[in-house]
Design brief:
With 280 residues, the protein is an alpha/beta fold. The chain has 2 domains: 4-202, Alpha-Beta Complex (Spore Coat Polysaccharide Biosynthesis Protein SpsA, Chain A), CATH 3.90.550; 216-267, no CATH class. Helices cover 31% and strands 18% of the residues. Strands 1, 2, 3, 4, 5, 6, 7 and 8 form an 8-stranded mixed beta sheet that branches. The radius of gyration is 19 Å and the shape is globular.
Length: 280
């Protein structure tokens, strides 16, 4: 049996949702896993865990979000875990999340789980959010996440053996998940998408997908994040040069974008992936 961890970062802002997260893990049909919690500033964290029958390891982390991700992946690479299932501590999961991901990892390197969008209070908004996206009917590879991303640290599972040697992340990186999976996918890995299990993905200010209306300021900020994403990847892999050059050339046009034009474009995208709405 492969040794499996369920990997998450907990910090004070997520404590409001933490009990739902823990409860959903405590009732998994496959309980052969270790909850690997990286603690970013929560006092007396063990007290939150005492109510639930879970095997767990707690590691203290510190620094910026990027520095914390470096610490997480340094630990995973050195650990004895063979499978890692990722989940955010403000989300929760159906009882088959661990079982299905472990089963699929026996034949694949990366598993993508669908999303079920819920309100902050857990009321369902949209089920099977990405199930009908045509991209998942095709082979998934690095080109699949060139313009946008569906591989997050909340909805994926991986074989630890595919982690790249270098998991130190530049402080300029904002979308660390997108960056890491872009690195991973430059090698030949087998990716599988499933709607058989999913994550209950809370829609709140810091955790959202498919926001149909953007402000100009938000669009400009996220465009520059995306430009920086391509710039840093282009330093490692010439595959990304074309998109870095394209976005750098388009950057001056940001000052001439009209809000109406932007929102009309966004409305045309059905159930978008992360960063998909940031296009010119």
């Amino acid at each position: 049996m492969k040794k499996t961890c369920f990997c998450s970062v907990i910090y004070p802002n997520n404590l409001l949702f933490f009990k739902s997260f823990l409860k959903s893990l405590s009732v998994q049909t496959d309980n052969q896993f270790t909850l690997l919690l990286f603690n970013d500033g929560v006092v007396n964290l063990i007290e939150y865990l005492q109510e639930f029958k879970l095997n767990y390891i707690i590691r203290t982390v510190y620094g910026s979000p990027t520095e914390i991700r470096t610490q997480v992946f340094d630990y995973l690479k050195e650990s004895n875990f063979e499978y890692t299932i990722f989940g955010d501590t403000d989300d929760y999961f159906p009882e088959n999340r661990v079982r299905i991901n472990k089963l699929l990892l026996s034949k694949n390197d990366v598993i993508v789980n669908d999303l079920c969008l819920v309100t902050e209070q857990g009321k369902i908004i949209t089920e099977n959010y990405w199930k009908d996206r045509q991209e998942f009917n095709n082979e998934l590879n690095m080109a699949s996440i060139l313009k946008c991303n569906f591989l997050g640290f909340g909805n994926t599972a991986i074989r630890n053996a595919i982690l790249p040697e270098n998991t130190i992340f530049d402080e300029k990186i904002i979308a660390v998940d997108w960056f890491l999976f872009s690195r991973i996918l430059k090698n030949e890995v087998k990716i599988f998408f499933t709607s058989e299990t999913f994550i209950y993905y809370r829609q709140h200010e810091n955790n959202i997908v498919g926001k149909k209306l953007l402000t100009l300021d938000k669009f400009k900020k996220e465009f520059k994040i995306k430009l920086n994403h391509y710039a840093l990847l282009a330093k490692e892999n010439e595959f990304f040069n074309e998109f870095f050059i394209k976005y750098k050339t388009l950057e001056p046009k940001l000052e001439f974008i009209r809000l109406e034009e932007l929102n009309n474009y966004c409305k045309k995208i059905e159930r978008p992936f992360w960063w998909e709405e940031i296009q010119i």
